[in-house]
Amino acid sequence: MNLINLDTWNSYSRAFEEAAKAVLAGEIVVYPTDTIYKIGAKATDKDAVSKLRRIREEDSPLPIVVSDLNMMRKYCRTDAVPFVLLQQLFPGPVTGIFPKIYDFPEGITADENVRIRIPEHNFIVSLVRKFDFPVTSARANLPVGRSPKTVEEIPTELKKIAKVVVDGGRCRYGVDSTVIDFTTKPAEIVREGAASKSIADIIKNCPE
């Protein structure tokens, strides 16, 4: 494990470089987001996704991170969702469920849909923008563990497995993202989370 703190510009640059090298090599990294710490691997790499699934020991679909709405459209269909609503919710502490248009490796999707995030966190968004491919966004815990808001809360065994662990301090929200299913009409909140309680009104009142 290579633990790197984001406290200084030099360490930020080093963390960025080391995390990029690890992901491109098919390795696992741990990184901070606006909500909680996540485990990242190249979401289009079958072997990397398989490795992550073995670590997590669970079968639920793995969310992915993209850098912006333009990149999002490469991997899912958003035409049924008003663009103004997407702009209001992304980036932010929201995971959206959309119909997929990309043939992801097994483990990213369980059906015809994909879960996508654009976090309010410069490190991971910049990393994904550099790659121009998505990175997985699984909780940095084991199946029975809590969602870690600091590096100290990440299980030791998971930190040992990761090639790089990026310490960005305490995550802004410290709880899981709000999950919204955009495959239904109207969109439906399927898991409460870090997003404001007013998000239901935003969805309800958004013009078609």
Automatic annotation (TrEMBL):
Top-rank taxon, per record: Archaea
Any one biological process term the GO annotation gives: regulation of translational fidelity
Gene Ontology CC entries for this record: cytoplasm
Keyword flag Isomerase: no
Chain ranges passing through the membrane: none
Location in or out of the cell: Cytoplasm
Entry coiled-coil feature ranges: none
Reactions catalysed: L-threonine + hydrogencarbonate + ATP = L-threonylcarbamoyladenylate + diphosphate + H2O
Enzyme Commission (EC) number: 2.7.7.87
Enzyme class: transferase
Keywords annotated in UniProt: Cytoplasm, Transferase
PROSITE patterns: YRDC
Alphabetized InterPro entries for the sequence: DHBP_synth_RibB-like_a/b_dom, Sua5-like_dom, TC-AMP_synthase_SUA5
GO molecular function, one term: L-threonylcarbamoyladenylate synthase
Domain YrdC-like: residue ranges: 13-195
Recorded family membership: Belongs to the SUA5 family.
Protein name, per record: L-threonylcarbamoyladenylate synthase
Species per Swiss-Prot/TrEMBL record: Fermentimicrarchaeum limneticum
